[in-house]
Design goal:
With 258 residues, the protein is α/β, with parallel strands linked by helices. It contains eight helices and seven strands. The chain is globular and about 50 Å long.
C-alpha cells in the first residue's frame, strides 16, 4: 500500500528505543524525513551508525527550555513539521498511594502529561502551515482503566486522553488531526520491569504476574512496537485524513489491569 508520505516531516519524542524507535523507523521506511529526541545518549549514539537518515537531539520533554532548543533543531533539519508523535514517557513508581514518594508522582506527570503539552504548544504553529498535519499522543490501556499501585501513571495517561480530545476539537478548524494510541502489554524491557515490580509488591513470581496480566486480555500475547508504529503511520498519512479525536486501543482487548 502506497501511503503517499514521502517527504513527510516527522518529530518523534523518545525515539531512540522501544515504541519511539519503531515509529521513527516505520516513517523513515516510507520515505518520511524523521527527527527524534531522547535522553538516552548511548542509544542516540548507536542510531548515528544504524539509522543514518534519522536526525536527532538530546532532550528531556519536561524541560521547556530544552524542548524549545530541540524544536529549533528539528525544524531547521526537517524544514518544517507535519507530524508530532508525543511518545516520551516513564513508567513511574509502583507503590500504594499512601506510601508513594510525592516527588515520584510529580516526575511521572511532568514527563507523561506535561511533556506532551510542552511539545504540542510549539508544534501547533508549525502544523498550521502543513497540508497533512497530525499529532499522535501515546496514552495507554491505563488511560481508560484503573491500575492499582500505578496511580500516577494511570492519572497521566487518562490526562493524555483529555488533552487529545480537547486538542482535536480546538485544532480541527486548522485541519490538524489529533489522536491517541492506547497500547496494552507491549513487548520489551520496560513492560518486563513493570511486571517485575508488581510481582515484587505482591510477593509472587514474574511468571505468575505475567499469567495474571494476560488473564485480563482476549488475545494472550504482547503487542509489538511495530504494530503500534503501523497504526500511527497509517493515521498520519493522507489515508487517515478524517481520523481525529480518537483514543485507539491496541491492546489485545484488555478488560482490566491487574
Amino acid at each position: 500500500m502506497n501511503l503517499d508520505i514521502k517527504g513527510l516531516r516527522v518529530l518523534v519524542t523518545a525515539g531512540a528505543n522501544g515504541i519511539g524507535l519503531a515509529v521513527a523507523r516505520a516513517f523513515a521506511e516510507e520515505g518520511a524525513k524523521v527527527h527524534i529526541c531522547d535522553v538516552d545518549t548511548a542509544a542516540l549514539a548507536a542510531l548515528k551508525t544504524s539509522d543514518l537518515t534519522i536526525t536527532q537531539s538530546i532532550c528531556d520533554v519536561s524541560d521547556r527550555a530544552a524542548v524549545k532548543t530541540m524544536f529549533a533543531d528539528a525544524t531547521r533539519t526537517l524544514g518544517g513539521l507535519d507530524v508530532l508523535v508525543n511518545n516520551a514517557g516513564v513508567a513511574g513508581p509502583t507503590a500504594k498511594v499512601d506510601e508513594m514518594n510525592p516527588e515520584d508522582w510529580d516526575r511521572c506527570l511532568e514527563i507523561c502529561l506535561t511533556g506532551q503539552f510542552n511539545c504540542a504548544r510549539l508544534a501547533v504553529p508549525l502544523l498550521r502551515q502543513s497540508k497533512n498535519a497530525s499529532i499522535v499522543n501515546i496514552s495507554s490501556a491505563a488511560g481508560r482503566l484503573g491500575f492499582a499501585m500505578r496511580a500516577p501513571y494511570a492519572a497521566a495517561k487518562w490526562g493524555v486522553i483529555g488533552f487529545t480530545k480537547s486538542l482535536a476539537i480546538e485544532l480541527g478548524p486548522d485541519n490538524i488531526r489529533v489522536n491517541a494510541i492506547l497500547p496494552g502489554l507491549v513487548a520489551g524491557d520496560r513492560q518486563r520491569r513493570v511486571l517485575e515490580a508488581k510481582a515484587q509488591q505482591r510477593g509472587i513470581s514474574f511468571a505468575e504476574m505475567e499469567r495474571t496480566a494476560f488473564s485480563y486480555t482476549s488475545i494472550k500475547d504482547y503487542v509489538t512496537p511495530q504494530q503500534l508504529a503501523d497504526q500511527i503511520v497509517f493515521m498520519c498519512s493522507p489515508r487517515g485524513k478524517t481520523i481525529s479525536g480518537q483514543a485507539i486501543s491496541i491492546c489485545g482487548d484488555t478488560q482490566m489491569l491487574g
